[in-house]
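Reviewers asked in the last cycle whether our approach scales beyond single polypeptides. To address this, we selected a multi-component target totalling 950 residues and predicted its structure end to end. The input consisted of the following lines:
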Amino acid sequence: MTLILTFTVLILVAISIWQITKIFELSQVNKENNQVATDADNNYNGKLMFAFLLFLYGLTLYSFWAWGDVLLPEAASEHGSDYDNLMWISFAIIFFVQTITQALLHYFAYKYRGEKGKKALFYADNDRLEAIWTIIPVITLSGLILYGLYTWTDIMSPSQNEEALVVELYAQQFNWKARYAGSDGVLGDANVRFLQDFDGKNLVGIDATDPNGLDDVVVQELHLPAGREVIFKMRSQDVLHSAYMPFFRAQMNCVPGMITEFAFTPVITTEEMRLSPEVQAKVKKINKIRNEKSQELLAKGEEALEPYEFDYLLLCNKICGASHYNMQMKIVVETPEEFEKWMDQQQTFAQSIQ
Amino acid sequence: MSTAAAHVHEEDHGHHHKETFMTKYVFSQDHKMISKQYLITGLFMGIIGIAMSLLFRLQLAWPEQSFGVFEVLLGKWAPDGVMDPNVYLALVTIHGTIMVFFVLTAGLSGTFSNLLIPLQIGARDMASGLLNMISFWLFFLSSVIMVMSLFVEAGPAAAGWTVYPPLSALPQAQPGSGLGMTLWLVSMAIFIASSLLGSLNYIVTVLNLRTKGMTMTRLPLTIWAFFVTAIIGVVSFPVLLSAALLLIMDRSFGTSFFLSDIFIQGEVLHYQGGSPVLYEHLFWFLGHPEVYIVLLPALGITSEIIATNARKPIFGYRAMIASILAIAFLSTIVWGHHMFISGMNPFLGSVFTFTTLLIAIPSAVKAFNYITTLWKGNLQLNPAMLFSIGLVSTFISGGLTGIILGDSTLDINVHDTYFVVAHFHLVMGISALYGLFAGVYHWFPKMFKRMMNKNLGYIHFWVTAVAAYGVFFPMHFIGMAGLPRRYYTNTAFPYFDDLADINVVITVFALIAGAAQLVFLYNFIHSMFYGKPTEQNPWKSNTLEWTAPIEHMHGNWPGEIPNVHRWAYDYSKPGHEEDFVPQHIPLKKGEEELQH
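The resulting structure, written as structure tokens, was:
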């Protein structure tokens, strides 16, 4: 029944738009049938062009007013502030150019709207003007390119830090695992061929004949010590995934058959982040929304939503199949002491396969 | 057409024969008919593509809701009206494929290259009518196969329009990677063949069949754009063909070009030594130039329409040609900016950042030249002109965020988020669509001998213009908030709960934009049969197509082809009574030809 009903409604909507359009057209029969823009058309469309400029500005202002708080969450990694600086500088340039060019475009469309008898200025070329607007972008972009490359090299250069923590991120449809190198500081060899060893207990396919692997620790929740560089080695066992950690301005694809790398230093612990005013405001806002939803659900006799508490997240950001939208892992950043304590409680690979 | 003219025409074409329905409307070798065939097939595919986007927008705005329309249109893939995640992915995949290739490549370039190249350069037809016909029918065949793939048991391809392996290579990875994916690849292979035949034909025609006096520097910018687009296509499409063929080999014949070390559904697969990153390189070697294959024709159309309707020469004609060439050249060496975080060497990232940001320079020149063309013009705000101005606006808004995405550093955090979706929809999706609409409103009289209704055109433009920004502007915000694209719903992350409202806003605007296209569709179909009959040169344009008789004929002009004596942009030239001087009018005594 709903089937037929929806179908009818859809068709009716389509027909009514069609008919309204037709009525509109028929209502103009008595008017002059001239399908080329007249002075009157130029006049009101020119004014609408100006109004459109105001619409664009209004939309921009409204969006920032209403949604400005969702932009770029507070950075929690060492290179995060460099990233954010570059981002805001680029944004400033973009806004400047956007504001000016849209104004010129729409203002000219309004100002020079056509009139019968008026003649346009025959103005085909001006080398100096063109040189100016070639050179200005060249200079601006050179600056941006240099700044960008400098930051990029900074972030992406292979780490020489011997103190760094090496963590393997392991992706599969549709969850994440993390592997720590254990007391020897070296990740054991691994390959998907070993996944079926030990009745499937070998979660990330560690080669049991490699002594380096025996003390490795495989976990489902990523813990990181604050203030220490972390080098991530990424693997995937099936399709492409992408390890996306927006709070740390970090992302790298996980590619089957190869190991990719990304390194950063987390600087704010989860606990500290929860106390940041920005995050608290966000959590409050989200819980208000969830509360309202919960009321609706309760009224329907369903279970209420859990209240939200802030946590860092690792998301999958490369299309990987049906549950792509729910492929996530919690990241806990804690003090080095807490981290050591947590690590001591974990089972090593050797223990887990016994 | 007078009998005398017909007689001359008969003499021009000794092989002239009687036309049947089949040769005139179906297997036509006439470029004007082929262009209409492209347009109508492209519009049909466009309806499917846009309808799909509305379906997944509904899902994104109200993820928990059940929709009757899902049940009706998606059947078993939306049990109780709730969309299945696999179908969501299939919808975004096919939406992307159809819009990029079938609507904005074939529908836009195929239509207007075919219509305008012979008519604007003064040729009787394309260099090879037969190849041209084959090109269209291959495109038609690939469209049919793509549409057929929607009805496959396990669903159509669902690996995203880029169909990265291993997801696209392994049927175990998702249902859409079975027969649906095979059909996708076959369809694309045929599409590429069609595109190559078309492009070769365009290049040869522009180089060899220009009428007397039509030097390369007197060509209208439309032709320059189509010409350069065809060259980019010939250079880059074959690489996509090789990617598709290798992927077919991996899928069906057990090779390991793109696959290595895979464990899926409890089984270790035999693939060894391949790399998905190789596929990404091959794909984007076409994929990025494809953006310009889509965009350049739209910019060419806009150049022509803005000059005509501003009653002013296009500003900086030579700079416009130079920037088209610069964009074309750069477009082939920037593909890596889609792969900054793919695992390729970070040094390559630096190189691609450099080349990518360089593209902003010719693009900026184009934008400034358009704006200056409007300055002190006498703007005739026809619907085509509005869409052209709209194009410049979205081209700027969308292009500017490219500065962020093209910068490898900044890309790290916004890669594959809605920020990207907002960027490319504005800069190539909406801009190219506006170019398509502008072209249809402007050349409708040439194609169908009738005018489209201007008031419906105005409604169409203004609603679309507002709604398009309404859809894509807010997407920048949810992208900067870190929301990945291709998520079936955001409810799995309470962190994104405060973005739900923005998603509703976007969907409402999308529905409005969708409805506005019905106005266009009505106007298009109705005007085809009942529109006001056109005059010879309704927009008082300079280019040669308006000297050809309204009634279509083989060979385009009865008798001699007009000779060309000037560039296409002598609008409002001092010393002339009228505010336009068509290209075939000889220079007056003492009149200087503007060499720009």
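The mean pLDDT of chain A is 91. We regard this as preliminary and will revisit it once experimental data from Aim 1 are available.
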